[in-house]
User: Fold this.
Amino acid sequence: MRWKLAAIFAVVGSLLLLLVALPTSHAQKKQWHIAIVPKALTGEYWVRCKKGAEAAARQFGVKLTFIGPSAETEVDKQIDIVENLITRGVDAIGISPCDGKALVPVIEKAIAKGIPVVTVDSDAKTNKRLAYIGTDNEKAGEIAAKELAKLMGGKGKVLIIQGVPGAENLMQRVKGFKRVIAKYPQIKIVSEQACQSDQTKALDITENALTAHPDLGGIFGVNAPGAPGAAQAVKAAGKTGKVKIVGFDALPDTVRYCAEGVIQAIVEQRPYRMGYLAVRYLKEALEGKKIPRMVDTGVDIITPEKAQKMLLQKPSQK
Assistant:
């Protein structure tokens, strides 16, 4: 009888131990909810970033919300989106801040609520975020400057077409660009203007610069709309090849103008990889794993010859 009671107690004890272990097992199998907040939902660049995030979400079995403002200038809208994600109780957030300063309070609010945050594509001025995943923008600006200086033969007047003021990644590119240009005493930056990430405004800025400086020799498009807008104006003015253009991101218009020789070089980022790694590293962070503080996703240089080949190939999503 005693033997039977002991056996029963042993079975009951095992069941109790199993029940105690269930919450831990459940936590390990939880489907994490990760949100990625780009600067904007429109544009090929962010479409590719989304595809990378979606691929990682499928691979690692997480729930993904990809949500952002309609334009990169909508700083307040982006803040509201993050506030809403905090209220909804998402597990982690990856964000490309429209303004590296303005987004800091809401980013730090999310972190204070126990929601890990990484910055993607563009950084924020806070050391509380877990990591930055994207281009080393100062280095990319230096690369752009070296390309443009070489194309201009080390002399001439340069126009810088900025994107949206306050975007940390763009300010870093300009910083790197100017650091290299300063080494060329015969190159002078005659104007620096923001196109507000609007290709039409970049066109207008270039037209005015060509009028004010008929001997303009080079243009640096700091973000995606700058170079194609500038190319449109340069081509219309009959100055293809005379005014050298270096820009960022291989968007369809940019690649087409590069293939035509209106744009001489494109610094191509890797938004697909940014989106993919943001989801991957956030999941690892949620699992208690240590992730790197800085992940440089790298760049490629596209020349007119490469652009011509790209037009003949199926567009890459990466």
DSSP finds eleven helices and twelve strands in the chain. The two ends are 70 Å apart (CA to CA). The longest helix spans residues 2-28. Residues 5-27 have pLDDT under 50 and may be disordered.
